[in-house]
């Protein structure tokens, strides 16, 4: 059996110096890596083709498929911009089916798990969707194909029987994550020796916008499962030894935790890292309340390489936090930020500036608190910008918020799946898109720090930190002024914003022009 797992090519060129964290150009897909490793453990022949990360064009992909003639071909799917993902996947599958007509085609990942009906109805050529945790489902699916068995009794899949969509019973989640082999990594980026690791699966949070929450529920899994500290440190040791990895990005939904079990896990992890003398740095993700609960553990983690914490802040308005189902308070968000700051760690934070019911007054209040906290001074140098990043809620099909929007008749045919209730916010967003368009030319320079951190001199790194701090501050100030001018009716159409946009762009472009002289020193 020859099996190929594919991240499809995208119909546009890789962005110049695309070096921000956790994107498909820099890191292999860890979900496909686990599936590939499980199949290889059972002696199956598995190739993983990650077209964006390995710079494999559509033409090259089709050549490989025609030459190899795989028995089974699986695709990873995402939920961001779902309509584009569907069109792109449909195009790729049609071309592949012409070159490998006998191959069994399946799809997994978020979109396939949350919306299997859409894939099976709208894409010709997909034999089934794999729902939820995919490792054991894919293994059983491969075994059925190899043995000539009917695949329709495989747990955890959806398929089309004539015109009817059949969704089988979910597969039970994997209890012991240590039983999984280390993920197969299709590539390691030559100039950016960073790897992603997952030390746990699951989250006790009930955020209504979270696709991971829905994904786990497809396996009837509502608990957090941990790999042992020994297993995690062994993988880090393997990556350092075999791939010269210098930095780890932990992709757990929530690396910290308030339970006695988790706090002991963190202590054991730190003890092992010290024992192994692992000379790496790492970043973790956490909920605000768990940052507070694990304050002492954070100091231990810092001793063994922790340099940055991502906190899902989302907003400083309690009514919005409640709308999202975050289960935290504004005070906890602020306290968590202060803990990270006072520990002299870099802060990355999730923030949702815009959602269906947002008002300009709410945007202004959030910006005011961000400025009062002076968050631009200690957040990660490449913290996502607010307006230039268009921090807007995604509400894709399959999650709780999308269901609510349908019930409230607010669902819309755009990639976010809703429109704004407030017309002034719609105008604000239209101008924000123009600001983002103007800012795009500077994006490679804004993210230059990520390469300089690993390869540049201290002077270069310091200059980029200081410059990006000023850019983050200017982005907040522009956002604030735009809100006020719309509220004061000084701007009532996109055309009215031209002078404002030019004025603020002039303020930031001089900063980025100064980066050109140090670009080569940062690489």
Task: Offer a few descriptive terms.
523 residues, alpha/beta, pyruvate-formate lyase- activating enzyme, 5-stranded parallel beta sheet, 13% strand, globular
Describe the protein in words.
The protein is of the alpha/beta class and 523 residues long. The chain has 2 domains: 2-167, 3-Layer(aba) Sandwich (Rossmann fold); 187-522, tm_1862 like domain (pyruvate-formate lyase- activating enzyme). Helices cover 47% and strands 13% of the residues. It has helices spanning 30-41, 51-54, 58-68, 82-99, 110-114, 116-122, 135-147, 211-217, 229-243, 260-276, 288-293, 295-303, 318-324, 330-342, 360-372, 400-407, 423-439, 443-446, 448-455, 458-487, 498-515, 519-522; strands at 2-7, 45-50, 72-77, 104-109, 128-130, 157-161, 164-167, 194-197, 200-201, 225-226, 247-250, 281-286, 306-314, 346-351. It has a 7-stranded mixed sheet with strand order 2-1-3-4-5-6-7, with helices on both faces. It is globular and about 70 Å long. The two termini are 42 Å apart.
């Amino acid at each position: 059996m020859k099996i190929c797992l594919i991240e499809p090519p995208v119909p546009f060129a890789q962005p110049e110096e695309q070096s921000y964290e956790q994107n498909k150009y820099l890191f292999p897909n860890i979900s496909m890596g686990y599936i590939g490793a499980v199949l290889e453990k059972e002696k199956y022949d598995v190739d993983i083709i990650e077209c964006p990360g390995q710079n494999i064009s559509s033409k090259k992909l089709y050549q490989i498929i025609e030459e190899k003639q795989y028995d089974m071909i699986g695709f990873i799917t995402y939920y961001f911009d779902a309509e584009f993902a569907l069109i792109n996947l449909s195009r790729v599958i049609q071309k592949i089916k012409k070159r490998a007509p006998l191959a069994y085609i399946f799809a997994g990942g978020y979109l396939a798990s949350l919306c299997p009906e859409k894939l099976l109805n709208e894409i010709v050529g997909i034999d089934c969707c794999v729902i939820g945790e995919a490792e054991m489902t894919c293994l059983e699916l491969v075994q059925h194909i190899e043995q000539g068995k009917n695949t329709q009794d495989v747990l955890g899949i959806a398929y089309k029987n004539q015109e009817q969509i059949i969704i089988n019973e979910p597969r039970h989640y994997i209890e012991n994550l240590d039983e999984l082999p280390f993920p197969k990594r299709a590539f390691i980026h030559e100039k950016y020796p960073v790897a992603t690791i997952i030390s746990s699966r699951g989250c006790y949070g009930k955020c209504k916008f979270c696709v991971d929450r829905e994904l786990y529920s497809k396996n009837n899994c509502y608990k957090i499962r941990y790999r042992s500290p020994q297993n995690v440190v062994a993988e880090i040791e393997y990556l350092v030894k075999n791939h010269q990895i210098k930095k780890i990005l932990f992709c757990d939904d929530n690396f910290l935790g308030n339970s006695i079990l988790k706090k002991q896990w963190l202590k054991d992890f730190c003890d092992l890292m010290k024992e192994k003398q692992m000379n790496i740095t790492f970043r973790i993700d956490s909920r605000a309340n768990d940052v507070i609960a694990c304050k002492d553990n954070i100091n231990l983690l810092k001793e063994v390489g922790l340099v940055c914490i991502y906190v899902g802040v989302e907003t400083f308005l309690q009514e919005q936090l409640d709308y999202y189902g975050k289960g935290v308070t504004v005070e906890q968000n602020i306290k968590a930020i202060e803990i990270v700051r006072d520990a002299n760690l870099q802060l990355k934070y999730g923030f949702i500036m815009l959602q269906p019911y947002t008002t300009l007054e709410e945007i202004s209040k959030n910006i005011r608190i961000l400025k009062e906290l002076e968050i631009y001074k200690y957040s990660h140098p490449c913290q996502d910008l607010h307006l230039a990043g268009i921090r807007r809620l995604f509400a894709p099909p399959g999650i709780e918020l999308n269901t609510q929007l349908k019930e409230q008749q607010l669902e819309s045919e755009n990639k976010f799946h809703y429109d704004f209730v407030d017309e002034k916010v719609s105008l604000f967003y239209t101008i924000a898109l123009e600001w983002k368009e103007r800012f795009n030319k500077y994006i490679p320079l804004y993210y230059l720090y990520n390469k300089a951190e690993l390869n540049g001199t201290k002077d270069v790194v310091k200059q980029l930190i200081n410059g990006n701090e000023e850019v983050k501050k200017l982005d907040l100030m522009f956002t604030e002024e735009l809100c006020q001018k719309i509220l004061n009716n000084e701007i009532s159409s996109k055309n009215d914003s031209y002078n404002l946009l030019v004025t603020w762009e002039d303020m930031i472009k001089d900063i980025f022009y100064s980066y050109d002289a140090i670009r080569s020193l940062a690489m």
